[in-house]
Design goal:
The protein contains twelve helices and seven strands. With 259 residues, it is an alpha/beta fold. It has a domain of 179 residues: Rossmann fold, CATH 3.40.50.300. It starts with a strand and ends with a helix. Bound molecules: adenosine-5'-triphosphate (ATP) and magnesium ion.
């Protein structure tokens, strides 16, 4: 199993949206995919299930690693797609230092790997604090999201600083790159910001695929669905299929076969 953490410097850039739709794209392509909500806010659960506040989840496992995985894994209509909600995270909202839960995050991934998943995508809280740091330290790969707007671009030095910290935290981490989100092709500031980011970072560090700003994302989350499960979502789903292929290409050839 390969696990990919979805991370960002700033909040609200589309991590949860990308995690859900990318996981769905992999699952539709036949990859047995588990989407894990490692954000104490519990947004994946809120977006995809009605009873998310009642579900046991990732944070329940961190609290009590003897919690059976069957209690945590929520199946979906798609046989290859399942999720783990964040669960009862109240003790963790404050964060805690990096490394506080490292061994339990690893135990969780180990337990999940034993269930035959090919891929585990982990949605995280913004920044690299607390459990997010532990998730990044335990991951095989990371993708970083950056919003295509002038403010986002100004945070690039911080982003690079963050990348360096990730490399120190986990030297075997494969940094898949930065993916631009909420790109607005009809807004010059947005396309300029996207271009500026491409100039600032080495080309292999920026995904070719960019996520457009589209009101369908808001509609999809209101309906509790990945965009590809909505009739009108085919065009946007194609974006996530391209992102999936890019990720498969970026992973080592041996890993790509496994995924
Ligand atoms: N490409 C997009 N186009 C339009 N709206 C979007 C897009 N991506 C996300 N959104 C909307 O923007 C809001 C924030 O997105 P999301 O929750 O995915 O961000 P996040 O990075 O996970 O936030 P947080 O840091 O709080 O976890 C949501 O209301 C979501 O529906
Ligand atoms: Mg989120």
């Amino acid at each position: 199993m390969i696990n990919i953490a979805v991370s960002s410097q700033k909040g609200g850039v589309g991590k949860t949206t990308v995690s859900i739709n990318l996981a769905h794209a992999f699952a539709r392509a036949g990859v047995r995919t588990l989407l894990v909500d490692a954000d104490p806010q519990g947004s994946v659960g809120l977006s995809l299930t009605r009873q998310s506040r009642l579900l046991a989840g990732f944070y329940d496992f961190l609290k009590d690693p003897s919690t059976p995985l069957e209690r945590l894994i929520v199946p979906t209509r798609l046989e290859t797609f399942a999720l783990v909600a964040s669960g009862q995270a109240s003790d963790y909202e404050a964060g805690g230092g990096i490394g506080a839960h490292l061994s339990r995050v690893r135990d969780f991934l180990h337990a999940v790997a034993g269930r035959g998943y090919d891929l585990c995508i982990m949605d995280t809280a913004a920044g690299l604090f607390g459990v997010t740091g532990d998730v990044v330290s335990s991951s095989d790969a990371i993708m970083i999201l950056q919003q295509a707007e002038p403010l986002g671009i100004r945070s690039v030095p911080k982003l690079l600083e963050g990348l360096n910290r990730m490399r120190v935290m986990n030297p075997r981490l494969s940094i898949l790159g930065v993916c631009l989100t909420m790109v607005q092709h009809d807004l010059i500031e947005s396309t300029e910001a996207a271009a500026a980011l491409r100039q600032l970072l080495p080309p292999e560090m920026v995904f070719q695929t960019q996520i457009p700003r589209n009101p369908l994302f808001v509609r999809a989350s209101a309906r509790g669905l990945p965009i590809g499960a909505m009739e009108e979502g085919a065009a946007v789903q194609a974006v996530f299929d391209r992102l999936r292929v890019e990720i498969e290409d970026k992973l080592q050839p041996g890993d790509a076969r496994r995924v």
